[in-house]
Design a protein that fits this description.
Layout: E1 28-33, E2 40-44, E3 51-58, H1 63-74, H2 87-94, H3 98-110, E4 117-119, E5 125-131, H4 132-138, E6 144-148, E7 154-157, E8 160-164, E9 171-175, H5 209-212, H6 217-224, E10 238-242, H7 250-260, E11 271-275, H8 289-299, E12 307-312, H9 323-331, E13 339-342, E14 346-347, H10 353-368, E15 372-376, E16 397-398, E17 406-412, E18 417-418, E19 425-431, H11 437-447, E20 459-462, E21 465-468, E22 472-476, E23 479-483, H12 486-506, E24 528-529, E25 558-559, H13 561-567
Parallel strand pairs: 10-12, 10-13, 11-12, 13-15, 15-17, 17-21
Antiparallel strand pairs: 1-8, 2-6, 3-5, 3-9, 4-5, 6-7, 14-16, 17-18, 19-20, 22-23, 24-25
Helix pairs in contact: 1-10, 8-12, 9-10
């Protein structure tokens, strides 16, 4: 895996002051740099006196041990399996050392910056406000104005910045700085043509009308063997991420449950959490198809599991549209949710290596706490999070390429074939994790020279699993219709995991936590229905073909509840 270099040796010594009282310039080193993304254009120079709210991410006290702990608590047979960390135990690894806090704070103070506040789940961020001109001088940066071509996003960013070389062991990154993130909006609400089905035989079947009238919770229960019995453990919760002013409606949920999920009480609802000025207004005009989809297919499928909707507003200072903020929120909780599903993402090329590692490590921390993190893989085939033009190199999606979470692709039809839009491929930032070495090696051997030169053969492969993602019934703004997308698949798979967690907790066991190295996934692929047909075209190619075993379209396959439950040891 490509990751930041974490030094254990602390470099001492601070700059002496000149006679005039101005600190000597330290030897500087570039911490991050990038080219301007093709979808942004330079819009000029900002007023040098414009105030910027910046944050410095401090290095963890023992990041490497934290990663080892993740795999220890997530791997069956390990003596530490299931012994997820408490908040204080995680903080001991992930929080900065006193020396790191002192070194960076002293440097800022030397440069006249005293309005410093400590933020983050583990006090691992230093936030402060300075002018553009001061930021340019302090970080040897060149902050400019940028606008999204054909879009509404306006940013103040730099294409490179530096920090003192002696502080490199203490600083991970500066936010916002080199990020140009465009989060995908989610599925469109529509009524598409009926899905077609392949002829592959499968162990379980669903009512034929699921192929024509649309996918419902009943179809999924038949297809994947998901039980209708109500969950019993109120401590085992399922969280749904909400972004981009997408708000679920209680009236739509009640209508959905009454029509499509009659085994669930029509009064069932979610608990609302907000951050970054998030909200959840309740009117038909505020209905968001993504938010309604995610809440309807968690509450409607994971019967009785407490669902939390986390509404992230637009006042997010993390530079990543709230993706870091929501993880700081979750990792800072004494009792975090056992499952988190997110149906949003962006292209890996929108983010730099240092930014990708910072966010990826936040998902790693969640895994050590016992949180199963699932992400929709994206809807652009091999051309990224949404279908778009691309050159000869396929566009992976992020955060799906982070090796510390579970990426979910999409299938269609009740005999199940790959959905053509299902994003999948190989990371250009992260190396292939050990838990998928065998599966990916087998696939690449079967693939041969197809798509040679379009992707990194050594990169982390995604998605990991899949579920239905075409012609999925929802109620939105009082109207019944359908949606397509991997954003359908992630809450469906998350609901399966939540129901398994409920039974584990009821048996006095730990929740599943990080799923990928677990025996129910890569170590036990037979616990899923293997999808062997279809592909994910893009970039002027047919993309990757689905094959026997893992593939970068549908992953290991779709859930078989009984087999997954048995593999989990219940």
């Amino acid at each position: 895996m490509v990751c930041l270099v974490y030094y254990t040796a602390l470099l001492a010594g601070f700059a002496t002051y000149m006679v005039a009282g101005i600190p000597n310039r330290r030897s500087m080193v570039v911490l991050d740099s990038r080219d301007l993304p093709a979808h942004f254009a330079n819009a000029g120079v900002p007023n040098p006196n414009t105030v910027m709210n910046l944050k410095i991410a401090l290095t963890a006290a023992d990041r490497d041990s934290l990663e080892q702990t993740l795999f220890d608590v997530s791997t069956p047979g390990n003596a530490l399996y299931g012994q997820h960390l408490s908040f204080e135990e995680a903080k001991a690894f992930a929080g900065p050392s006193p020396d790191t806090v002192h070194a960076v704070t002293s440097w800022l103070n030397e440069n006249g910056i005293t309005n410093i506040t400590t933020t983050g789940a583990f006090d691992d961020w230093l936030a402060f406000s300075i002018s553009v001109s001061t930021a340019n001088s302090l970080f040897e940066a060149d902050f400019q104005l940028f606008t999204e071509i054909g879009g509404s996003i306006q940013l103040t960013r730099t294409l490179a910045y530096s920090i003192p070389a002696d502080l490199q062991p203490h600083i991970n990154l500066l936010h916002p700085s080199t990020d140009f993130v465009r989060v995908s909006k989610g599925p469109k609400f529509h009524i598409p043509a009926p899905s077609s089905s392949n002829n592959t035989a499968r162990a379980l079947s669903a009512t034929p009308s699921c192929n024509t009238a649309g996918i419902t919770p009943t179809c999924l229960q038949e297809l994947y063997g998901i039980p209708t019995t109500e969950a019993t453990q109120l401590s085992s919760t399922l969280a749904v991420s909400g972004f981009l002013d997408e708000w679920p409606q209680t009236a739509d949920l009640e209508s959905f449950l009454t029509t499509f999920a009659t085994d669930v009480a029509s009064t069932a609802t979610w608990t609302l959490q907000t951050l970054d000025d998030g909200s959840d207004p309740q009117s038909a005009g505020d209905a968001g198809s993504e938010a309604n989809l995610d809440t309807q297919y968690t509450i409607g499928l994971a019967n009785g599991v407490p669902v939390i909707f986390i509404s992230v507003g637009e006042n997010n200072p993390d530079g990543l549209d709230g993706f870091l903020d929501i993880m700081d929120n979750i990792n800072g909780q004494v009792s975090p949710p056992h499952v988190l599903t997110t149906s949003y993402g962006f292209d890996e090329s929108d983010i730099t290596v240092v930014e990708a590692n910072q966010l990826c490590d936040a998902y790693m921390i969640a895994g050590t706490r016992g949180v199963s993190v699932l992400f929709a893989s994206g809807d652009g085939g091999v051309s990224g999070s949404q279908s778009q033009g691309c050159d000869n190199i396929f566009i992976p999606t992020y955060p799906s390429t982070c090796p510390f979470l579970t990426s979910v692709g999409a299938t269609q039809g009740i005999a199940e074939t790959a959905a053509s839009f299902s994003s999948g491929g190989f990371s250009n930032l992260f190396f292939q994790p050990s838990y998928q070495t065998t599966a990916v090696t087998n696939y690449l051997a079967a693939l041969g020279t197809t798509n040679a030169g379009h992707y990194s053969r050594s990169g982390r492969g995604f998605p990991d699993v899949s579920a239905q993602g075409v012609n999925v019934e929802i109620v939105n703004g009082g109207v019944t219709g359908t949606v397509d997308g991997t954003s359908c698949a992630s809450p469906i798979f998350a609901s399966v995991i939540a129901l398994i967690n409920d039974r584990l907790v009821a048996a006095g066991k730990s929740p599943l936590g990080f799923l990928n190295p677990l025996q129910v996934l890569y170590a036990n692929p037979s616990a899923l229905f293997d999808i062997t047909t279809g592909d994910n075209p893009g970039c002027g190619t047919n993309g990757f073909p689905a094959k026997t075993g893992w593939d970068p379209v549908t992953g290991l396959g779709t859930p078989n509840f009984a087999s997954l439950l048995a593999a989990a040891g219940v």
